Amino acid sequence: MQEILIGIVGAGTVGGGVIKILNKRIENLRQEQGLPIRIARIADKDPRRQAQFAAYGAICTLDADSILNDPAIQIVVELVGGTTFAKEFVLAALSRKKHVITANKALLAEHGPLIFETAAKENVSVYFEAAVGGGMPIIKTLREGLVANDILSIKTIINGTCNYILTKMSREGLSFAAALDEAQKRGYAETDPTLDVSGGDSGHKVAILASLAGAGYVPFKSISIEGITEIGKNDIAFASELGYTIKLLGIIKKSNDEYLDVRVHPVMLPARHILASVSDVYNAVLLEGDAVGQILLYGKGAGELPTASAVVSDIIDVAHNISCRIGVRIPMRYYSSSHELSIKPIALIEGRYYLRFTVQDKPGVLASIAGLLGEEGISLASVMQKEGFSAKKVPVIILTHVAIEKNLRSALMRIEAMNYIKDHTQVIRIEE
Amino acid sequence: MQEILIGIVGAGTVGGGVIKILNKRIENLRQEQGLPIRIARIADKDPRRQAQFAAYGAICTLDADSILNDPAIQIVVELVGGTTFAKEFVLAALSRKKHVITANKALLAEHGPLIFETAAKENVSVYFEAAVGGGMPIIKTLREGLVANDILSIKTIINGTCNYILTKMSREGLSFAAALDEAQKRGYAETDPTLDVSGGDSGHKVAILASLAGAGYVPFKSISIEGITEIGKNDIAFASELGYTIKLLGIIKKSNDEYLDVRVHPVMLPARHILASVSDVYNAVLLEGDAVGQILLYGKGAGELPTASAVVSDIIDVAHNISCRIGVRIPMRYYSSSHELSIKPIALIEGRYYLRFTVQDKPGVLASIAGLLGEEGISLASVMQKEGFSAKKVPVIILTHVAIEKNLRSALMRIEAMNYIKDHTQVIRIEE
Fold this sequence. Notes:
2 copies of one chain form a homodimer.
Chain A: E1 4-9, H1 13-32, E2 37-43, H2 48-54, E3 59-61, H3 65-68, E4 73-78, H4 85-95, E5 99-102, H5 105-122, E6 126-127, H6 138-145, E7 151-157, H7 160-172, H8 176-185, H9 194-197, H10 200-214, E8 224-225, H11 233-241, E9 244-254, E10 260-270, E11 282-289, E12 293-300, H12 304-323, E13 350-359, H13 365-375, E14 380-385, E15 394-400, E16 403-404, H14 405-416, E17 426-430
Parallel strand pairs in A: 1-2, 1-4, 2-3, 4-5, 5-6, 8-10, 10-17
Antiparallel strand pairs in A: 7-9, 7-11, 9-10, 11-12, 13-15, 13-16, 13-17, 14-15
Helix pairs in contact in A: 1-12, 4-5, 5-10, 7-8, 13-14
């Protein structure tokens, strides 16, 4: 059988892992799976990496176009990241009828329809297991393993950096800044951590998951995203005292109305919730299907080899397709602009809330807050006010019963105009 | 495109679920996935079920052979169970070049090589996601999602009945018999629960997982299997006091010697272990891959719709293959008698042990036990003796340091010959 040639663009951490794993398994793939795979070309803009990978028998080059221009290369692996060069490169590879494997969540979340429509037109595949959840096979599980199900909801801890920071804050009482510093020292956070801690990275992954679960296109821009930068160590402590753990969660829920509910924000989870025990850099995806009930996947969502494991499983999947002369095995017709889904406006969501007001300690304050909440139809489930703070800035913690977000926002706007409010009010949604 | 016709033999609980799910998704499969699937025939020996499924447009029959004899049927779904009729039926279907989907763990564990070799010869596929872990896509995860990995170990809670019983015993202090009774009342245990509580069902599933993880054939008969019938409520209580939870675990471990370590038995897990929190009828599979690290799958391992979800995902997988004119997409060359793996004799395993001796309370007993263990090179990590028992039958609990099983067995044989031993000694392996 003819060799199946692969071109890799981007030989950084994940790319290096892919090369290592393929090299280790290449004989096994030939013999056990009947797949004569070979890495033909590795392109990277850093010339030092050429020497590093020269031993693997591939042509190492600075010239990514040489991968596009090699007609014998049938599979292109894009591990550059970003949405500029990567977008042009992926589209060019597809237009030359090469299959594409990518770990690029930003690219798919922001330009998925263009990429999947181009692939369909050219009758080639785009595989992207590594874009979400590192080595956890969540994409395959959604597209194949649970294909018999209507996915009713997904709740996911999908950013290891944020989960590490929140775990550190929770276990060691650190501030956000101190926990971020620790994450950076250990290599769990980038020098510029904005994309992670702002929730943007989670948002990219959730946009992809929501499109698969909703069987329609969920534009990244339509998702309400909040990060963890405003979570204070006192919020973590109060949550713990109330029996909750604070996690950054991606939430996807089907409802009876016309909207798909898709969002990323910190939540308070009951401490006994299965996702509350997912700590450090681990990720987890809790799915609910109409047939299968609840399924959890748990594993490392990032790192050289876990992510490379996902890329290599995609390479093998595509190689099986090629050896069976298949262009597209599982169509992605719904991932297109013409199938765009309506996302529930955040104002319409319903739930319980944790509110931390910072008030001047004087008579009538609690009555005023409770009254203003009540006027918007929001009732209180519990109230906590602690001694030991300066009378000028006292935290008052309120957990509400179920309320509609827009009513809560109206009430908060009125409360924050009061002269007894001394700081920004913290709002964290409670997920049961 | 030509319709893809399915024949189902066995329309009991799971079969009924498959028919319901397919009926619900059939339009979606045609439109979104381009798969014109139709159930052509349903065979069941119970004539009352014919009326039940007549509405679905399939021919309902008592005659399973009519499925084999219909040349238009390309996919046969075997949901009869057992290893007699099912074996003949599956082999006959394969020899007529029909793809087979089965949930039959006993059939594959006991006759896997014959079935997979026949399928390979006829160039058709056998899919069996529902045989292990109900709706959890563990087979697909092993064969495809983690294909880039060498699977180093699997630890799994894979029988819902046993896990329910152990959970009940642990939470409510019930005896095994009382917890089994409760499980039967709730429909979680069969009238004859032997296959479940003896560990046989777990053994069948573990044989399949071990063959996939080990990339070779693990005969069911070669696996050491113990059930939960001898677990006493005092063992559960002592375990809890020592910080452990008792679970029935399937264990698969690669080691540096010539053997694959494969076994099913009760273990004591540290209470903080991720598998210790898997309770009730839930199943979980904790895998370790050389690239991906630890991955956990968690979900309902049984029940009408979860199991049917797995069967339907297989139907769709095979239908994709058929629509692409593929006989066998992913070869299973290693699942054959010529690839049989050597399984580690239980005498050679190493680990820590919980020992519960029942002794007469008189001077020198503990010294004698400790001395005899010491003579076999087994040292004690902790000892617990309680007040409040009759002096004629006092429990003495010992946790050992790491020991080799054969040495432990030698010591126990010598200890049990002593006249101060008043009952059978309980041995439970500790898994860290």
